[in-house]
Amino acid sequence: MTQSQEKSRQITYVQAVNEAIEYEMANDPDVFIMGEDIAGGAGRANLGKQDAWGGVFRLTKGLIGKFGEDRVRDTPISEAGFIGAGVGAAATGMRPIVDLMFVGFFGVCGDQIVNNAAKMHYMFGGKVKIPITIITSTGAGTASAAQHSETLYSIFTHFPGLKCVSPSDPYTAKGLMTAAIRDDDPVIVFNHKLLMGRTVKPEMGKGIGFGSIVPEDSYEIPIGKALVPIEGTDITLIGISYTTLVCKEAAEELQQKGYSVEVIDLLSLSPMDNETIIKSVMKTRNVVIVDEDYPRCSIASDISALVAEEAFDYLDSPPVRITAPHTLVPYSLPLEMEFLPSKEKVVEAAVSILE
Amino acid sequence: MTQSQEKSRQITYVQAVNEAIEYEMANDPDVFIMGEDIAGGAGRANLGKQDAWGGVFRLTKGLIGKFGEDRVRDTPISEAGFIGAGVGAAATGMRPIVDLMFVGFFGVCGDQIVNNAAKMHYMFGGKVKIPITIITSTGAGTASAAQHSETLYSIFTHFPGLKCVSPSDPYTAKGLMTAAIRDDDPVIVFNHKLLMGRTVKPEMGKGIGFGSIVPEDSYEIPIGKALVPIEGTDITLIGISYTTLVCKEAAEELQQKGYSVEVIDLLSLSPMDNETIIKSVMKTRNVVIVDEDYPRCSIASDISALVAEEAFDYLDSPPVRITAPHTLVPYSLPLEMEFLPSKEKVVEAAVSILE
Amino acid sequence: MTNSKKTGIDKSTALWMYQTMITTRKFEAECRRQADQGKLRGMHSSIGQEAVPTGICAHLKDGDQILGTHRSHHHCIAKGVNLNEMMAELLGKATGTNKGKGGTMHIADINKGMLGANGVVGSNIPVAVGAALTAKLKKSQNVSVVFFGDGAVGQGVLYESMNLASIWKLPVVFVCENNRYAEATPFEYSMAGQSVAKRATGFDMPGINVDGQSVVEMYHASKIAIQKARSGEGPTLIEAMTYRYQGHFGADPPLTYRTEEEEALYKSKDCIRRMKSYLIDMGYSDEEKILEMDEKAQIAVSESVKFADESPFPNLEELHTEVYVKYE
Amino acid sequence: MTNSKKTGIDKSTALWMYQTMITTRKFEAECRRQADQGKLRGMHSSIGQEAVPTGICAHLKDGDQILGTHRSHHHCIAKGVNLNEMMAELLGKATGTNKGKGGTMHIADINKGMLGANGVVGSNIPVAVGAALTAKLKKSQNVSVVFFGDGAVGQGVLYESMNLASIWKLPVVFVCENNRYAEATPFEYSMAGQSVAKRATGFDMPGINVDGQSVVEMYHASKIAIQKARSGEGPTLIEAMTYRYQGHFGADPPLTYRTEEEEALYKSKDCIRRMKSYLIDMGYSDEEKILEMDEKAQIAVSESVKFADESPFPNLEELHTEVYVKYE
Ligand SMILES: Cc1ncc(C[n+]2csc(CCOP(=O)(O)OP(=O)(O)O)c2C)c(N)n1
Ligand SMILES: Cc1ncc(C[n+]2csc(CCOP(=O)(O)OP(=O)(O)O)c2C)c(N)n1
Ligand SMILES: [Mg+2]
Ligand SMILES: [Mg+2]
Predict the structure, then answer these.
(1) What is the DSSP letter of A122?
(2) B257: part of which helix (H) or strand (E)?
(3) CATH code, domain with C149
(4) Which of C157, C166, C199 has its CB closest to that of D202?
(5) Does the annotation count B79 as an active-site position?
(6) What confidence tens digit (pLDDT) does each residue in D271-323 have?
(7) Nearest-Cα residue of chain D relative to residue B43
(8) What is the tens place of the pLDDT at every residue in A174-210?
(9) Residues whose CB is less than 8 angstroms from the CB of residue B336 and which lie 6 or more positions away in sequence, other chains included
(10) Same-domain pairing of B183 and B243
(11) In the prediction, which pLDDT does A3 show?
């Protein structure tokens, strides 16, 4: 480890992603990024205002000044068009990063993602690679209602040919973003809006952006590996993205109640780190899966089924899923809060297993 | 039961669906159908050739002659456009049936299905109903390769606001199609291509179209209820659509080996008949779930998780999933056959559980 | 021309149009205050664009349907949606148009002919085609109107929808509110040819460009389009040139991507101020009566806040209801 | 005009074009025989449309990329994809262009500049824009060409793609093979305005209509479009009027939706027959030499069958490989 690699500081999730993109763009001329208002104010160079936004979550703030309009490319609102263009660019030698602003918009461009990005390598007998990175935002808690608050990584995980990752804090955001850009397969990075600092209930954002130490230097977190931020022996809590935070908070409370809790931060949904899950559950013999996606045909079902099938003889209790209910995301604040998996629900589930 | 209700005969799956649509159109002026070549040769009335196709699977053959161009409406290749139009028509008092020719095309129109059809009722506080029926085709086995051979009902089942059904033979096809059209919620009917008589391996289609007795009169099969075509006590095989046929064939072979096999024909994925599944598994204590959809975040995971969580103490063995592998659908015949769940794989799995 | 147009608007319609626009503006201003107090959780303001839906809705009847976007408060008010219920919706209350489940981007009231705002850019366009299809199939003589922004012109579904409406000669009017920006992106950058109206070419339907900051111009242009639709002659695409005075969302500062000069230019053509002059020129009103109308608007808006404030939040069970009509 | 055009095609190019078209036709005929024998599992025949990609590919270089549709054998052959590997692919063999994994709707050979056929109507259009974006970013002087049918004009993604290509001035040529039908649906029914070329209006790019049954016309029209693209002047939309002689898919009978008279009319303008006359008129060839070319085509096609027949099916493990470059 070089000296500079040791330099670390607390930065926001947004800054962590920004650093990863900047580093890759600086070091690989084939990397470029496009999306709606990824710079903002495009074509207004004459006003010195190209970087009005830097993306709706400011993930790309400042990049156009460093890399120019060609490589930090504002697009019209044409997700099928520009994600398809990303696929074509990837097939012909570039490494595009493409922004799908909210995951709920996948329905206007899903064809390009699942029929082209995911399938070309296979359909063409391995002769074409599609090293595209799609970044998108997920999650409720921001008063954005049913179309702008979904999670949906489960439906992308469904598709062979796609890789899906979902960081849980600034440290994992930077490392997974770096790994995604360098990966030769299509990778979708799901960034939770609350982790990016968007929230209408300030207490939900408490500490979120600063929960982890982030090295200044570039590093990768391998796609397909989960982390175990808290080790324990009584029960395993599995979180993904924002729900990892929920699990950590629940673990704290459960520890105070005298339980030894293990928390898994899934990070990668496809490929999924089955080994870490199974190993943990074989040890703790109890598991609660905490996920914000809709419950049916979801990553939570997948993990529950995996555990049931692979660790059947080790389980002291059936797996429990704490997920969003089978309902859409409502606008009204109390309803929206009720929609989200919460520390309270996790603690309650865990206690009722362990009692 | 009237006399005519007792009249039954063996008809094809295609004819069964056709009868259901015809009956509903004749009895409800608000029902209409649209899609690409749903008649075929539209605007060629002068040639007397409006009904060149009757849909790519001939499900709507003959209907334009009976109901005219207005109600049997050919469309341009604009799935987002005409499915969106279906949503708008449904919201304003019609009961449209819309054809999405192959489920793999959902990516060009998913937004209309998941953001409008599925969400309007909820988002608008219950004040608008969307009684649209979307019919689509699924399944491999017809040399159609990766984009035209998918199953994908799992990703629609993921979405609250949608109902999903998948018939397994002419009898269930007619009854579920009727129920779908009459339902006040958006329903997607997934029709398997092999069940509709499409196959390049004739032995796969053997008997498929004629496996069941179909009443001439109109009838509904309730959405949300599974059927149990074969009862038994040693093991439960759960099939969906074409894989129900696979389960039945496997059951026959297992019975010859001396096992008592129960087969569940799932029929509805959303809502799902949890009760029938749990009841059966509590009795047999063993379960094999057979599904052609991709394995990750799928209906098979869902059922496995359900069984593990709700019948944990009753299980003698962990649930087993026989699904398509986590790969895309290949073109080459031997690869494509290997992709499909087969009787052999089901029998093998069951035997290894029961031995 | 100017003259014949002027005589085309009768007094009560003209007064209705002014009242509608001023009510909208005051409503939006109130929303901003509610947001600043943390009660209203973010919205896209329609201030500056009031003339567009107002000029159009002047021609619409009860059974006609309009459809909107993420920025739709002005559409709702123009079509007669109840202000109290709108404000209650924005505060997430059970008495809201959508029982608090939809919020700012999804306000709907089908009985009033507001078939819904929609948060996905372009998504409502084919839905409007469907409403028009119903009208045609039921021979109801109703029309539908869909509003969308200049940004939506980037979405392919617009062209699919125009094509369907054209080949089926459906009673639908496509109204693009070209406020020059999609978020921070100017249409001069994102739109080849830089004209929405021209995009109708090749779809066998008229595409017209209108001064969307003039409710009088909007009135006349849409009159023709709606008559055409209603009489079975098919769709029209209207490009209404307008401007949003505030940021894209919430208090987002627009000066990061546009200039003070530009803002001043468009604000100098303000639709409400111009309508005021028109009312006076036409002898339909005077300064005093206009003040009364302004006050009436303010009272209605204040009442809506009171109504919303006094309304309860939905019960938590509401999270689970109305996902389906029936699900078991 | 006719003269200047004629002198524009040199002998070797003209002979290459004829050879390409006749090879395509014989290849497609052979495919039909293979299907009748149950070896080839269904396909969309390009017979009748050979001139379109041939006229265009005459101008393309190695690094240029073309993209196709469900009906793409003629595109592949015109861009130089190996016949043996094509036939092997169609029979699902391990030696196929795609190792048997793709089949008729997905033939690809990026080294030859065939970036893939695609079974979803319209789906490849933005991908071509992306290939052109690479050319622009890498300053490679390459162009990309995307072929699509009249049916794809119904898909919104075409307009999104034209817009992107136009505002970014990308080196891409959009080629619509208007063979008058999408499955059984005539474009006169489904396409408002009944002109593909006109759809370019409003996208700030030329849209031109060409006799796609004349390879000479195709050659000249595409020359201009490709030069324009290559020199950084942006995209062009070409509507090539053509006709498929066979059914939509497999042996699907076209007479259920079109007339014998219509078929006769278009067959009377057959591209291969007309090119034959052209070669003779120009003194580039004679009946005898043409027969030799025909024979050469037949031999190549027959060899492809032999090659495919002798090739093994893929190992069953191939089902699981190349889903990802790496997955663990
Ligand atoms: C499909 C889709 N892409 C992106 C967005 C994010 N978004 C919301 S509003 C907006 C800009 C819309 O611009 P315009 O259509 O001009 O409407 P305006 O905001 O000016 O009223 C964008 C990009 C979205 N809601 N839907
Ligand atoms: C998005 C989508 N919708 C429908 C289909 C089914 N389909 C396959 S080919 C075809 C007709 C295409 O017509 P056209 O584009 O004119 O091409 P042609 O077959 O005439 O070459 C249709 C509807 C599809 N493949 N993709
Ligand atoms: Mg705008
Ligand atoms: Mg065609």
Answers:
(1) H
(2) none
(3) 3.40.50.970
(4) C199
(5) yes
(6) 999 999 999 999 999 999 999 999 999 999 999 999 999 999 999 999 999 99
(7) D189
(8) 999 999 999 999 999 999 999 998 876 766 655 555 5
(9) B140, B141, B143, B149, B329, B330
(10) no
(11) 42
State the complex-level ipTM.
Answer: 0.97
pLDDT digits (tens, 9 = 90+) for A132-176: 999 999 999 999 999 999 999 999 999 999 999 999 999 999 999
Nearest CA among B285, B332, B324, B336 for reference residue B307? B285
Q: Which chain C residues contact residue A47 at CB under 8 A?
A: 257-259
- Set B19, B121, B148, B262: catalytic member: B148
User: How does A171-189 read in b/e, with b if 16+ C-beta sit within 10 Å?
Assistant: bbbbbbbbbbbbbebbbbb
Q: What is the pLDDT of residue B45?
A: 63
Q: Is the CB of D181 under 6 A from ligand 2?
A: yes
Among candidate residues A177, A195, A213, the one where a domain is terminated: A195
CB A277 within 8 A of CB A226: yes
Instruction: Give yes or no: residues A182 and A244 share one domain.
Output: no
Question: What residues in B contact A80, CB-CB < 8 Å?
Answer: 108
Minimal Cβ distance to D123: which of A115, A128, A129:
A115
- Per the structure, how many domains does chain B have? 2
- Does some domain include residue C83? yes
Secondary structure element (H or E) that encloses residue B98, with its range: strand B95-102
Residue C7 has a pLDDT of: 60
pLDDT digits (tens, 9 = 90+) for B22-63: 999 999 999 999 999 999 976 566 666 667 899 999 999 999
Nearest CA to A14 out of A22, A24, A26 is that of A22
Residue B338 lies in a domain: yes
CATH code where residue B165 lies: 3.40.50.970
- Answer yes or no: is A210 within a domain: no
Q: Could you tell me if residue B208 is inside a domain?
A: no
pLDDT digits (tens, 9 = 90+) for A309-331: 999 999 999 999 999 999 999 99
B111: Cα within 13 Å, side-chain hemisphere: 34
Q: Which pLDDT band, with edges at 50, 70 and 90, does D2 fall under?
A: very low
pLDDT at D42: 87
Are A153 and A231 found together in one domain?
no
Residue D49 lies in a domain: yes
Q: Among residues A19, A24, A36, A79, which one is catalytic?
A: A79
In a domain, C148, yes or no: yes
Domains in chain C: how many in total?
1
Please name the residue that has the structure tokens 């739109």: C191
Domain boundary among B145, B178, B195: B195
- At residue B92, what is the residue type? T
Which residues lie with the beta carbon below 6 Å from any ligand 1 atom?
A 36, 77, 79, 101, 105, 108; C 44, 69-71, 119-121, 149-152, 179, 181-183, 248
- The shortest C-alpha distance from A293 to chain D (Å) reads 24
Same domain, B60 and B148: yes
Least confident of A314-328, C1-15, C90-104, D14-28: C1-15
Same domain, A256 and A153: no
Could you tell me if residue D184 is inside a domain? yes
Distance of CA D232 to the CA centre of its chain: 24
Q: Does D123 touch chain C (CB under 8 A)?
A: no
CB-based contacts of A344, cutoff 8 Å, min separation 6: none
Whole domain around residue C61: which residue ranges? 3-320
Among B197-211, D212-226, D310-324, name the one with the lowest average pLDDT: B197-211
Q: Do A77 and C319 touch (CB under 8 A)?
A: no
Which ligand is located closest to the Cα atom of residue D147?
A: 2
Catalytic residue among A36, A148, A150, A292: A148
* D190 vs B contacts (CB less than 8 Å): 42, 74-77
Q: Give the domain range for residue A18.
A: 8-195
Is 50 exceeded by the pLDDT of residue C4?
Answer: no
Question: Does A177 lie in the same domain as A300?
Answer: no
Cis peptide before B271 (omega within 30 of 0): yes
Flag if B108 and A111 touch (Cβ within 8 Å): yes
In a domain, A165, yes or no: yes
Strands ordered across the beta sheet of C207-211:
C65-67, C144-149, C172-178, C236-241, C207-211
B148 noted as active-site residue: yes
Rounded to a whole number, what is the distance in Å from the CA of D122 to chain C's nearest CA?
11
pLDDT for A47 beyond 80: no
Q: Do residues B174 and B235 share a domain?
A: no
Residues A135 and A77 in one domain: yes
CATH classification of the domain holding A290:
3.40.50.920
